Amino acid sequence: MKPVIFGLAGETLSSDERAFFAEAEPAGYILFKRNIVDRNQLRRLTDMLRSLHGRDDLLIMIDQEGGRVARMQPPEWPAFPAGAMFDRLYDVAPSSAIAAAHANARAIAVTLAEVGITVDALPLLDVRQEGASDIMGDRTLGSEPMRVAALGRAVLAGLAEGGVVGIAKHIPGHGRALVDSHMELPVVDADLNALEIDIAPFRTLRDAPIGMTAHVVYTEWDAARPATLSPMVIGEIIRRRIGFDGLLMSDDLDMKALKGSIPDLAAGVVAAGCDLALNCFGRMDDMTGIAQALPDIGDLSRKRLDRAIASVTRGRDQPPLSELIATRDRLLEPVLA
Predict the structure, then answer these.
(1) What is the 3 state secondary structure string of 245-313?
(2) Cis geometry, peptide bond prior to residue 334 (ω within 30 degrees of 0)
(3) Cis bond before residue 201 (omega within 30° of 0)
(4) What is the tens place of the pLDDT at every residue in 104-122?
(5) Fewer CB within 10 A of the terminal residue: the chain, N end or C end?
(6) Counting beta carbons within 10 angstroms of the beta carbon of residue 283, is it exposed (0 to 12), middle (13 to 18) or buried (19 or more)?
(7) 251 is catalytic
(8) Model's pTM, two decimal places?
(9) Of the residues 63, 251, 252, 286, which is catalytic?
(10) Are 197 and 127 a contacting pair, CB within 8 Å?
(11) 182 an active-site residue?
(12) Is 336 helix (H, G, I), strand (E, B) or coil?
């Protein structure tokens, strides 16, 4: 098995993809709008991926946050609110906000599990800061670490109860970035006391099954390299100071924050300490290069992968989706009016 998550080019697997994926044995896959038509097509696609590897628990992930980040969209699937909605409710009724975030996450998980998706890139534990780039903005759960952690814990629990593994992102925190890491490399010059605010939710939820790194330079920790490529940040901050021992994946290697060839970047993030590299675009040249550049997955990383995927119980009876959504909307009424 190679320590990488690959994207797919289209709505079904091409013959070239089938042959390559069967030989390369990536740890998992990520899906985007380009891969999705409707429930039946999406279930066929995820079943096809599982059949290639003979693993019912294959890591098949998606970014289904709600709000402006949603790969599965109406009218085929319901729209889900962005994280800021639960932050607003927390101002009025903290316990209701936690319950609403939980019900919403479980509803998202039900829609994902139905089509064979096992992992969702949610929740964001980034602490929102005044004046930062809007790339996080309303996707976040707030600007106060305790609140972010409380809502994030509810999201992780709701996803797990719905049969889907959550991802704590973007470790060690994207909330101070002044630019969008999809387009350029953010550099955060905050001092150590300020950075303690950013890592607080990740420390509180250090037992999350999966984490995703930030493509951000933190000059107090490593002025030369973004967290994703920094042995210092991964080893000393994420693994030791935060105490995260779950499966750690990079953010997407195709984001413009990172410079260099995609295969070299994949090798770099794994060498820096990430368990998995994430490559989203589904370009065959890049994927074959990654497969050649990466070693086989290490024993510890494989244990973390298996432990993460086994952290939820699939196949349990679920409340109707409509009931979960109705519960969420009833709780959200004070901020929907």
Answers:
(1) CCEEEEEECCCCCCCCCHHHHHHHHHHHCCCEEEECCCCHHHHHHHHHHCCCCCHHHHHHHHHHHCCCC
(2) no
(3) no
(4) 999 999 999 999 999 999 9
(5) C
(6) middle
(7) yes
(8) 0.96
(9) 251
(10) yes
(11) yes
(12) helix
